[in-house]
Structure formats: structure tokens, C-alpha cells
Amino acid sequence: MIRPRNILRLIHIQWVLVRHGLDEVLFATKVLRPFRFLMILAPWTWFGRRKTPRGVRIRRALEDLGPIFIKFGQMLSTRRDLLPADIADELSRLQDRVPPFPGDKARAIISEAWEMPVDDVIDHFEETPLASASVAQVHTATLRSGMDVVIKVLRPGIEGMIRRDIALMYFIAHLAQRYWSEGPRLRPVEVVAEYEKTIIDELDLMREAANASQLRRNFEGSAILYIPEVDFPLCHRNVMVMERIRGVPVSHIERLRDAGVDMKKLSERGVEIFFTQVFRDNFFHADMHPGNIFVDIDKPEDPRYLAVDFGIVGTLNPRDQHYLAENFLAFFNRDYRRVAELHVESGWVPPHTRVDEFESAIRTVCEPIFERPLKEISFGKLLLRLFQTARRFEMEVQPQLVLLQKTLLNIEGLGRELYPDLDLWQTAKPFLEDWMRQQVGPRAVFARFRDALPEFGDALHRVPVLADKVLAKLESGELDLAAHSRQLTDMQRDSRRQHRATRAVIGGGSLLVAAGFTLGTLPLWLSIGGAGVGGLLLLFGLYRGEK
């Protein structure tokens, strides 16, 4: 159903774009292209309104449109291979320099959350925010204990703004699902639902505090990543207090180089942190844009990352995690046949897909980028070709993986900035091989068998009774085998799987080990990433083309 508020919001979006001199973006779209002549007739084109640089106009429009659009701009700012430098530079300002709300208002919110005057807890509170982002802003303070902290305060009224835009996204997604030929494959409604859960969770700072605590525990004593400590007694749903860290923003490349930081090691450690979070811990920081990442340069030859802002974290179910790891390894080994097979086995492409044709398509897209550093790879072009391949083979978007693809895009963009000569494949491959050995080696198989023994024991004593009941029903004619042939077929298939699993346990897991060393997921995450943001990227791409 078309709701008036959705129509009004769409009109408002159009008006903001026009007000900031971005009407050429609107008229570059397919629907409005026939009416481009109206731009010439519009009064505002006669007075030189577009003297303001285009990057500034885009940034200001996104700021006016609210938090969801700001987050989109943050993500785009990490992809300098997809945007002109002037636009990327301006969008990078969205990472921590969104217009703030007044400091006295932040003090009042904190006092209300603590149910006492701020000065009862704090010696000094800096009302000018240290950083201001789309959902919250951060103030520095010193506790009565003498500890330096940062206080994150949720923007007043932010939840209503976000829910309004989420409602609009659902409206557009339902239209796309119903009327667009690609709708069923791209599953826009499910993608929006997944995003809604993520962004609403970000509005609960107690959840963010818990996320920070978990990540800190996962990397306790780590030489490559430090997570600040949370002061839980002072945390509430709209206020979070944590240890203040001091480091160089990762986006300040020249400052890092001047300090003598080993940029190659720094970029490799970024890759290692990502794969450790996804595969070892299955708990990853999913908002790793440069505004949230700093570098400890006390030992420039041995740099360490410092992370903040844990409102968005991701996890994977064991099945997706395993398929991702296998896909990555098969890709790194250029085993495109295995990549194609894994996509069919996982259900990411339809079961009728011709594996040999899919293998050939993947090889055609991916082979040219191997053994080349990041600076020589156009991920914009690769993204487009993979998206075309996904469409040809009816690959469905996996909403549960969209957050992971967003993080991968951020990581790859960060690596490109830090050390363009980074060999992404060789950096990640040893880590994944080691993880797969741990997952499918004899010890892992034995551990899973041991963990399952109580369940086996519980079920074992019921087998004779169940078998006797089935035989009795067969003898009396109560069990209609013909009517349940499909179910029996499924049971036989499951039985064969169980039998294969038992043989694998007895044999020491050798078959699983052999299967575990083949894998590859770049086609997956790039194609899905393209599906998730393709429409908005196209908008900026058209605008770029006009220039």
C-alpha cells in the first residue's frame, strides 16, 4: 500500500537533491532522462548556483537526508577506485565530521541517563564533541578517578528518523520485488529487513558496549589489535563510556609514513584481523570505515590497530561460515570448478545450474586479477562483470551475508589506501588453510564426534522401540509407503550422508581434509555487494559520467 508519508519522503529527497544542485543526478536516471531539457529551463541554472564544488554538494545533500544516507556516503568514501578524488575526499568528511548537536544538550542527556548531575561523576567534560557521526557524537571527559574517557551520546530523535527511512526502503523494496524482473533474485525486501535489524541494534549503546567487551576479550593480549575498556556502570541505552585511546587516524597516510610506520605490515595485519574475526571468532566488527580505525605508532616497525564504534557487528551460521572458507580457498587455488560446485551445494545458485558453464564464467572474470597488486586491479570493473555473471546464472542475494560483503569492501578499500602493492591473496591464503586444517582435520572430527556422543546415547535406546512400531504398522498396512516415497528418499539420502560421516570419523577425517583444501568466495562477496548497493552506485556512476 502506498502511504502518504512515503510519497512525501520521496518528494523531500528529490527536493534536497535539487536544492543542492544535484538535479543532473536525477535527470541522468533512465526514468527522467527524456525530461533533461527542464534543467535548462529551471531558474536556478541561470544564476550560477553550481559554483560550489560537486563533492561538497553531494556531501551536504547526504547530511540533510539523514543517517542512512550518511552511512551510504561513508561506505562510498572508502572506494576511491569507484569515485573521482574530489567526491571521495568530501565523502570522507562523513566519517566523523557530521554537523553536531549542541554540547549542552549532550550534557543534559547524560545527566538524565545517570540520574544525577554530570559533575558528580566527572571532573571535566568537553562540550565541543571530539567526533560527530550519523547516529551519535563523542565527547571527551575525565572521571573523578582521574581516568580519561570518551562518552558517546545518541542523537536525540534519531530513532524516528531512521524508522521513517526504513519504511521508505521497504516501500521501494516491495515495489522492486513485485514489478522488477530481477526482484525475486535480488530479494530486496529481505535485504532491507536484514539492514533494519542491524541499524536498529546500533541505536542501543548497551548492546554496543557488550560488543566492545566481547571483541576486547577475543583480542586480549593481541599485538595487532587493541579494543578500549568499557565502563559498564556508566553505560545506558543512549550513553556509553569507555577508555580514551590515542592514535593516528588510519586515513592520515602521510602522517603514518612520516612516523616510519611499516605500511606493508600494517596492511597485512588489517587482512589478518578481518579473517581472524570472521573465521576464528565468528564475531566481526562490521563498520570498519577509516573514521573508526586508528593506529598506535609507539612502535612504528610493529604497528597496532586501535578500533572504536562497535554498534555494528556480524556473525555467520556455521554452514555459511564453512562454505565461505571453502570458497575463499578454492578461489585462491584457482580451483574454479570447486567454486562453482560450492555455489550449487550451498544453494546460492539454482540446482539446475550447469557447473561447467558456471566454472567457465567465473574463470573468465577472475583469472585476469591474480598475482597482481591492489593498485593494478579495477574493482569497479570487476564488480560490474561479477554482477553480470550473477544475473546470468540467477544467483540470489544472501541477505545474511550482506553485512560481511560491506565489511570486505571496507577492508579492501582500506588496504588499497595503506599499501597498494599488497598481495591480498597470498596474505589471506595461509590463514584460511590453517583454519580449514583445524576445522576438518582428524582432531576436529573427533571433537565433533565426542560432543555428539550424549545425543547419540540419548537416541540409541529408542531405536528398537521405533523399529518395532514401524514393522508393526507395515504388517498391519497402516504405513503407506507409496504416499511417502519422497520422504523415504529423503531419509535414504540423509542416511547415506550419515554413513559417509561415520566413515570419515573412522578413517580419521581424511576425506574431509582433502575436501577442505579447496575453496573461494570473491565472486560471491563482490557480486552480492554489487547487488546490495548497485542502484546507488549507479546513481553516482551516472553523475560521474556526466562530468
Short key terms for the protein model shown above:
single chain, 547 residues, alpha+beta, five-stranded antiparallel sheet, four-stranded mixed sheet, 11 strands, 59% helix, globular, disordered C terminus
Please outline the major beta sheet. 5 strands, antiparallel
Number of domains: 4
The count of helical stretches stands at 24
DSSP summary, beta strand count: 11
How much of the residues is beta strand, in percent? Answer: 5-15%
The gross shape turns out to be: globular
What does this structure look like?
Strands 1, 2, 3, 4 and 6 form a five-stranded antiparallel beta sheet that branches. The radius of gyration is 27 Å and the shape is globular. The model is unreliable at 29-41 and 494-547 (pLDDT under 50). It has 547 residues and is an alpha+beta fold. A hairpin with a 3-residue loop joins β2 and β3. It has four domains: 4-98, no CATH class; 99-132 and 135-203, no CATH class; 318-428 and 522-534, no CATH class; 442-508. It has helices at 4-19, 23-27, 37-41, 54-65, 67-77, 85-91, 103-114, 158-179, 183-186, 188-201, 205-218, 253-258, 263-281, 318-332, 336-346, 355-366, 379-392, 402-418, 424-440, 442-460, 463-476, 485-506, 510-516, 522-546; strands at residues 122-125, 131-132, 136-143, 148-154, 225-226, 239-243, 248-249, 284-285, 293-296, 304-307, 313-314. α5 crosses α6 (85-91), α15 (336-346) crosses α16 and α16 runs antiparallel to α17 (379-392).
